């Protein structure tokens, strides 16, 4: 399901995302439809959040159930 890091990424809260990562939030967490934190950050145009996620091993090629990737949606 949706996790706090999904919400923070989707809203562009960079400092909150940093705090969550420092406290071991899973940057690769996916919903049952394959939505990852980097996907929602890309979808909402939060480039600094995307950069932070990629620096922390988020998968830019993770595919959603509809076949879309974060790069596609950006």
UniProtKB/TrEMBL annotation:
Transmembrane segments: none annotated. This is Ankyrin repeat domain containing protein. InterPro entries: Ankyrin_rpt, Ankyrin_rpt-contain_sf. ANK repeats lie at residues 1-32, 33-65. It holds the Pfam family Ank_2. PANTHER family: ANK_REP_REGION DOMAIN-CONTAINING PROTEIN-RELATED (PTHR24161), TRANSIENT RECEPTOR POTENTIAL CHANNEL PYREXIA (PTHR24161:SF124). Keywords: ANK repeat, Repeat.
